[in-house]
Design goal:
Blueprint lengths: L1 E5 L11 E2 L2 E8 L2 E5 L3 E10 L16 E6 L5 E5 L4 E2 L4 E7 L6 E10 L4 E11 L2 E2 L4 E5 L4 E6 L6 E2 L4 E3 L10 E3 L6 E2 L4 E7 L5 E5 L8 E6 L3 E7 L4 E3 L4 E9 L10 E6 L4 E3 L17 E8 L5 E11 L2 E13 L3 E7 L4 E3 L4 E9 L10 E6 L5 E3 L17 E8 L5 E11 L2 E13 L23 E5 L5 E8 L4 E4 L10 H9 L14 H5 L10 H7 L12 H4 E7 L8 E6 L5 E5 L9 E3 L2
Parallel strand pairs: 4-11, 13-21, 23-29, 31-37
Antiparallel strand pairs: 1-3, 2-3, 3-5, 5-9, 5-15, 6-8, 6-10, 7-9, 10-11, 12-14, 14-19, 15-18, 16-20, 17-19, 20-21, 22-24, 24-27, 25-28, 26-27, 28-29, 30-32, 32-35, 33-36, 34-35, 36-37, 38-39, 39-40, 40-44, 41-42, 42-43
Length: 607
């Protein structure tokens, strides 16, 4: 829908809006319709008074405005245009059809012209469709026999035509071909069908039409020996890339006495998507089909890429015209993706339950994901449990188009260490889809005060909290400490790197090799704060030096004398470039510019 503005006096059209003295007109039509080759379809246009804003302004002051339609030429579109000088508010109809050479979609351009000189270009999409007829595009019918023809309108709009005709290539009627018992006249609504009988003499060749001005329904020949073609097993309209589909084309000699001779085939089975099973195809290498017998082409369709795939087989024989079969399929990828809708935490507390949900989604909007099965990996049983009753993935063998299923469960770590889970989906149309998660169970001891009326929260600290770290071979390393509360390993010397700006501190930590490990880093602000014992009466850093660390700076209350960098950027700090740090003298947590020089205490996750 669009708008036109013409100066029609403002009051000549009742109910119409005006914009600065101009009349506003609304244009309405369908943006896309199905259009066939063999019949005409109505394309309705309406220009009426509107109450909305404008897009064009007319200089005319005349009343009684009318509109006309001017079409833009397109060699693939046939238009009958009687929309001239139509009164505003009255619809007009263009009759449209497509040529055989038209693409699957054609863009139709036209111009709305008001009688006062205002005009506007418009366009619509014509989608190429065929009336469904029980004939192949090229077919041989049995001569001197009433052949039954059925036509169904599968389009979304009514089809308009005259009546069935049989013509030669110059579009002249062939009177020797008789059409009787006809119900196909004038109009066929969507979903409706009509029929008629057609009889011709042996050797007559021509075109079967519903309208002399439109494309034919089929090219027809009449023969004493009539070969028909049937898709005994067809490929699907929608196919999955990488999946194989069998097909069988059958050609039958309907004559009960005479053989079809001079038989040959022109096949278009594009490799590598289509392969013919010549060993089991009885049509392969033959030159005749005996009376009342058939031959078949058998093969496999396995699309290797997305897109439209088509195949055709054309039979030629001496007694009649060519007989053809064609099929096409739209190949798409059936892609299943996995998502951690609710994941387990990176750090978990022993004895606490954490729910998780894994979701697997078939992203294809047309095809089903088939052959679905799952392999579940529980690396830390019994820490993980699956809620099979509420897991829609449980027991399924397929996932419908544009649908999902879920696995739901719970992690409840019963001991310290890494807890891991993995789920792998297998399906016929694609590779395995894997989802996995790991969580580190903190080595906290029992909660403080388990009495029923206890109000305290938290965990008792291990005693001692820190112990010498261990190398990968489990031998002791005196250069680092292991925190039994958090499971982190810390560099022992708080002044090994000296003072550095933040970028240099990151580089130092990331490139550190200590106790045989190379995965050191700057701690997050939460990890750094976890070291502090706020009950120490000397300084917060003093407690660390007493409990195994060395050279933790605690010198004075000044920030730059005992501050340590974290890796956490202050996203709220004004001006940017600020990072959180901890002052070990006072325990103050603050954000400072990256150019400041502070101390470095690298950390890593213990194995």
């Amino acid at each position: 829908m669009s708008a036109l503005v013409g100066c029609g006096g403002g009051s000549d059209q009742s109910g119409g809006g005006t914009v600065s003295g101009s009349k506003v007109y609304k244009v309405t039509y369908a943006e896309a319709i199905d259009v066939s080759e063999s019949a005409g379809e109505e394309f309705n246009i309406l220009v009426e008074v509107a109450n909305s804003g404008s897009s064009l302004t007319s200089a005319s002051k005349s009343s009684g405005v009318t509109y006309s339609i001017e079409t833009v030429s397109n060699a693939n579109i046939e238009i009958t245009n009687n929309c001239q000088n139509v009164a505003i508010g009255k619809p007009c109809v263009l009759m449209a059809s497509l040529k055989k050479a038209a693409a699957d979609t054609e863009e139709f351009h036209f111009v709305i012209k008001l009688s006062d000189g205002v005009s506007r270009p418009e366009s619509a999409i014509f989608k190429k469709q065929r009336l469904d007829v029980n004939l192949d595009p090229e077919v041989a019918l049995l001569s001197d026999h009433n052949n039954y023809i059925s036509v169904t309108n599968t389009n979304n709009v009514a089809a308009y035509f005259d009546k069935p005709y049989f013509t030669d290539t110059d579009n002249k009627q062939i009177d020797t071909v008789l059409i009787t018992d006809n119900t196909c006249t004038n109009e066929l609504d969507p979903g409706q069908n009509c029929h008629f009988l057609i009889k011709g003499e042996n050797g007559v060749v021509g075109q079967l039409k519903l309208d002399l001005q439109r494309e034919p329904l089929a090219s027809v020949s009449f023969s004493n020996v009539a070969v028909t073609a049937t898709k005994t097993l067809d490929i699907p309209a929608d196919a999955a890339v990488g999946v194989s589909y069998r097909f069988t084309y059958t050609f039958t000699n309907t004559n009960t006495t005479w053989a079809a001779t001079g038989v040959s085939f022109t096949n278009d089975f594009a490799m590598p998507d289509f392969t013919i099973d010549k060993e089991n195809s009885s049509c392969s290498g033959i030159t005749s089909i005996v009376a009342n017998s058939s031959c078949t082409w058998k093969g496999t369709f396995t699309p290797g890429s997305e897109g439209n795939k088509s195949m055709a087989s054309i039979l030629h024989y001496a007694e009649g015209g060519d007989v053809s079969l064609t099929s096409s399929s739209q190949a798409t990828t059936v892609a299943v993706i996995g998502t951690k809708t609710q994941d387990i935490p990176v750090d978990a507390a022993i004895g606490v339950s954490y729910p998780f949900t894994y979701t697997f989604t078939n992203t294809n909007t047309t095809l089903v994901a088939t052959g679905v099965s799952f392999t579940n990996y529980f690396f830390s049983t019994p820490d993980f449990t699956i809620d099979k009753e509420n897991s829609s993935c449980n027991g399924i063998t397929s996932i419908a188009a544009n649908s999902s299923c879920t696995w739901k469960g719970t992690l409840t770590p019963g001991s310290k260490g890494t807890k891991s889970i993995g789920l792998s989906l297998h399906y016929a149309e694609g590779g395995d889809v894997y989802l996995g998660s790991s969580s580190w169970a903190l080595l906290a001891t029992a909660p403080i005060n388990l009495a029923p009326n206890a109000t305290e929260n938290g965990w008792a600290w291990p005693a001692p909290r820190f112990e010498s770290a261990k190398k990968a071979d489990n031998s002791p390393c005196d250069d680092a400490l292991y925190d039994k509360l958090t499971g982190l390993m810390w560099a022992k010397d708080g002044n090994a790197a000296g003072m550095k700006n933040w970028n240099d501190a990151i580089s130092y930590a990331n490139n550190l090799t200590l106790c045989g490990y190379t995965d050191w880093r700057l701690p997050t602000i939460n990890e750094l704060v976890s070291l502090l014992n706020y009950s120490d009466t000397v300084s917060l850093g003093n407690w660390l030096n007493v409990n195994g660390f060395s050279n933790i700076q605690t010198g004075s209350r000044w920030i730059d004398s005992s501050a340590y960098w974290s890796s956490t950027v202050d996203s709220f700090g004004g001006g940017g470039g600020r990072v959180w740090s901890v002052v070990m003298y006072s325990g103050i947590v603050g954000s400072y510019h990256q150019s400041s020089d502070f101390y470095v205490l690298p950390v890593r996750r213990a194995n």
